[in-house]
Amino acid sequence: MSCGGYSEVVKADGEIQKICDAMKHEAEAKTGKNYIVFTAKLYRKQVVAGTNYLIKVHVGEEEYDHLIVCQKLPCNGGTLQLTGIQENKRLDDPLVPF
User: Fold this and answer.
1) d(CA 68, CA 81)
2) Which residues form the Cystatin domain (predicted)?
3) Residue 55 and residue 67: Cα distance in Å, rounded?
4) Nearest-angstrom CA–CA distance, 3 and 45
5) pLDDT band at 3 (very low <50, low <70, confident <90, very high)
6) Each residue of 66-78: pLDDT tens digit?
């Protein structure tokens, strides 16, 4: 990962799923959908003044959403904020910043 740039795409783990679980209600509010499935599959991260996560989330059948979640530094509370969402993605769509 270059300084300030996003990491390579890696498989999501339990920590990333916890972030998605915490952001599910915000994603539902932004999209107007009620997600039955909301499973993190892949992600990239960018370390800046906190951490930005770009996450591919399986939302049912062949549908995926891309989320950008910002996590503040611990000294600033460490809170999470959903800062962007792209709907109607596929598994093979690249995870690129938006």
Assistant:
1) 9
2) 4-90
3) 5
4) 12
5) low
6) 999 999 999 999 9
